[in-house]
Specification:
- The chain is of the alpha+beta class and about 70 residues long.
- The protein contains 3 helices and 2 strands.
- The chain has one domain.
- Helix content is about 55%, strand content about 15%.
- A two-stranded antiparallel sheet has the order 1-2.
- Strand 1 and strand 2 form a beta hairpin.
Length: about 70
C-alpha cells in the first residue's frame, strides 16, 4: 500500500496530532499487535503452537451439522 494513502493530521501549530490510515492497513496493524501481545506470554505462545499442530478437531461443516444449524 503506498504511503500516499496515509494522511497526517496537524494542529494549528503544524504539529502532527493524528494519523488516518485505510481500514485494511489498520486491521493488519491491529492483527500484528494482537499476535505480538499473545506471543509475549510463554504460556500463550505454547498454547498457540500446540493448537496450530492439532489435527483432531472438527470441520466447520461438521460443527454446523452437529448443532443442527
Amino acid at each position: 500500500m503506498p504511503n500516499t494513502d496515509i494522511q497526517i493530521v496537524s494542529n494549528e501549530a503544524g504539529e502532527p496530532t493524528a494519523v488516518l490510515v485505510p481500514i485494511e492497513l489498520w486491521r493488519e496493524i491491529a492483527s500484528e499487535h494482537e499476535t505480538s501481545y499473545l506471543l509475549g506470554s510463554e504460556t500463550m505462545k505454547q498454547r498457540l503452537l500446540a493448537a496450530a499442530q492439532r489435527t483432531d478437531g472438527l470441520s466447520l461443516g461438521a460443527v454446523v451439522e452437529k448443532l443442527g444449524m
